[in-house]
Amino acid sequence: MTKAIDNIIIIGAGNVATHLARALLQSNKKIIQVISKSVTSAQTLGEICNCQFTSKIHEVSDNADLYLIAVPDDSIKEIAEIFPFKNKLLAHTSGSVSMDVLKEITVNYGVFYPLQTFTKNISLEYENIPFCIEASTNENTELLIQLASGISKNIYKIDFKQRRQLHLAAVFACNFSNHMYSIAEDILSHEEIPFDILKPLIQETARKIESLSPKMAQTGPAVRNDKLTITKHLDKLKSFEDYQKIYTFMTQSIQKEQKRK
């Protein structure tokens, strides 16, 4: 029978690392050490986990069942190359980095990717977060699935090709959407209108796609081909050149998509 993962070391102390630590603790797993380049960040997360912390990778304990790398994508390879153990289970949390970056470091490796946007001080319902799992062997896959199942009810076996596509889609759905909120907030601020006025609209837009496809839920002047309103909007954006370009591109993109329905 596959041995369960109980003791975990987290490498990283940012948004993803902090939320994963909280989720793992809630699922009765033990974080035995936190490692971060920033000793302050390591200490902060170490205190949350009530565990040892360090800023030096060579001080990593050899007593963990899983070593979880939760750092920016560009730092994963750097961390992996100085990881001192060859037989331990090592996994990263990235949506856009192949697990093969760990291949030369240890025989046991994988990906433990939570598909969510994380901010340290914003609470989340971890049980709803999709976890995407991939690993070097069937046994390692099952270990990571078991671990994720203690946190969430949404577990997926996703290979790198799929995960890379998923991460790209998530950037559009999350990061780009949030940037649109930021633009909207800026536009409102010029007339001293609070952003809160848009929140019910944003919430209803998100709610609708629970029962409709995004294409079917699309509304607005672009869908109606309301040329007069579009012209007025573009005229209002003359002093916001970048926003005007985005408005024009998005309008054209929506209209092209509607023609494909």
Q: What does the secondary structure layout of this molecule look like, with pairings?
A:
Elements: E1 7-11, H1 15-26, E2 30-35, H2 39-49, E3 52-54, E4 66-69, H3 73-81, E5 89-92, E6 108-114, E7 131-135, H4 138-149, E8 155-157, H5 160-189, H6 199-208, H7 214-217, H8 221-224, H9 227-236, H10 241-259
Explained architecture:
This protein is α/β, with parallel strands linked by helices. The protein is built from 10 helices and 8 strands. Strands 3-2-1-4-5-6-7-8 form an 8-stranded mixed beta sheet, with helices on both faces. Helix 4 links the parallel strand 7 and strand 8. It is elongated and about 65 Å long. The termini are far apart. The model has no long low-confidence stretch (mean pLDDT 95).
Short recap of the structure:
The protein is an alpha/beta fold. The protein has helices at about 15-25, 40-50, 75-80, 140-150, 160-190, 200-210, 215, 220-225, 225-235, 240-260; strands at about 5-10, 30-35, 50-55, 65-70, 90, 110-115, 130-135, 155. The protein has 2 domains: about 5-160, NAD(P)-binding Rossmann-like Domain (Rossmann fold), CATH 3.40.50.720; about 165-260, N-(1-d-carboxylethyl)-l-norvaline Dehydrogenase, domain 2 (Orthogonal Bundle).
